[in-house]
Amino acid sequence: MSEPIIEMKNVSFQYEYTQVLNNISFKVNEGDFLAILGPNGSGKSTLLKILLGLLKPQSGEIKLFGQPNETFRQREWIGYVSQKSNAFNSGFPATVEEVVKSGLTKKVGMFKRIPKDALLQVQDALKAVGMERFSKKNIGELSGGQQQRVFIARALIAKPKILVMDEPTVGIDHENVQSFYDMLYSLNKEQNITIILVTHDVDTVSNRISHVACLNQTIHFHGYKQEFDEISQEQLDKWQGHAVRKIH
Ligand code: ADP
């Protein structure tokens, strides 16, 4: 049996005037590939920020890798790729290799030496996302989907155990979404990286995913993808305020 590496119990959060998360309880096991679905404003980004230790909930309990959130120090185990990563224009003066290598400073610290085999690590990370042929290109010359892969490589170089992504398929052409999920699936299976992505777009939820959670202030559903597929559109509408359309 795999161990829960994320456990949230009765977590509630409010910004000054807005209650955003209400009694959130869920577990993520090592090796899960989880999509968190929710309409705009449902608290997805807030939940991610809590997971990343950037926001502190007013109540509830969080354990990461079995340790209480307050004393958890191995933050580099949780890699994050934000939605805004893939927005470089063509003039941006950094090569793919440089962007990926910059992910190492997070791990070794700004003023420590970058390890000698850094270039090898960069190549390995680029290979894992299918981008090794692009290492000398300028980041701005790549498509949105290719940039997204490079930023995943940048996160991978710090050797995370969990990869958290915010709307990763935004900016990827429809026909390339499946191969993007295939790439995530091989990271999940071959490198045993637990993957969590949030999206408001149910259409992008691929069969590569093992679990789905439906969030709208609270978790209305969390289970296997196959169980999610059994949920009716009517039920989803109740939970997600008509924002999520299922297509069979
Ligand atoms: P989602 O990612 O699902 O779109 P968010 O977590 O970004 O949702 O936002 C949830 C709610 O919290 C929204 O109503 C939003 O307006 C509000 N909110 C988000 N960030 C802040 C903030 N820094 N201060 C106050 N309210 C915020």
TrEMBL record:
Lineage of producing organism: Bacteria, Bacillati, Bacillota, Bacilli, Bacillales
Gene3D superfamilies on file: P-loop containing nucleotide triphosphate hydrolases
Family membership: Belongs to the ABC transporter superfamily.
Name the UniProt record assigns to this protein: Metal ABC transporter ATP-binding protein
Boundaries of every ABC transporter domain copy: 6-241
InterPro entries per the UniProt record, alphabetical: AAA+_ATPase, ABC_transporter-like_ATP-bd, ABC_transporter-like_CS, Metal_Ion_Import_ABC, P-loop_NTPase
SMART domains registered for this protein in UniProt: AAA
GO MF: ATP binding; ATP hydrolysis activity
Signal peptide residues on this chain, from the entry's feature table: none
Keyword terms, alphabetized: ATP-binding, Nucleotide-binding, Transport
Pfam families: ABC_tran (PF00005)
